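Sequence in, structure out.
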Amino acid sequence: MNTSPLPVIQTVDLWRIYQPAAHQQIAALRGINMQVEAGTFVALKGRSGSGKTTLLNCLGGLDRPTSGRILIFDQDLSNLNDPEITQWRRERLGFVFQSFGLLPTLSAFENVELLLRLSGRKRTERIQRSQDCLELVGLKKFIHHRPYELSGGQQQRLAIARALANHPRLILADEPTGELDSTTAREIFALLKRIAEEEATCLLVASHDPLIDEYAHRIIMLQDGQVVDVAQ
């Protein structure tokens, strides 16, 4: 009997070709085949232009591949129309960006709670889950602080708390330590690894930061839109 875990992410011969001009084509992804299981912290690495962000955008339903298949939680994204994929993304995924993307006029609690409000959760559930997420990332004491009252590392922790709000089994992060010093970057990577292991969440993190190698369970190297190496 096969007891191996089902992959959270599976891509099959994934291509994304852009056509910026009538007689010009740029292949950002060239036949990507990969799969990632729950509870895995994966570093997605490669030079600028290697296809990291394009791959994240396709996996998150922010961009449509030219050909190939993306299966997430056994859901084929090509079968979803735009409103369906928006709803699916809101309910199943978490996103973390380099620029944090926090609302400056809202408190730390309100930044997390807003996502739950948009999902239609009941007030008591929103309050408890927001508090739990802030505690998980070490911001319980800063619940009423606004983003500009927090350090860069604390703002990224807040962005991670927000990404966790809807209990996602998949979090996609694009250069989450790009604006942080090395000490804070280590703290963020350690936090992401702990979330993957304790919350059974799959994390796919695109990063140029060499420090990520010390924390990721797997490293997937991209070059010119292709997977060229996978390291455990």
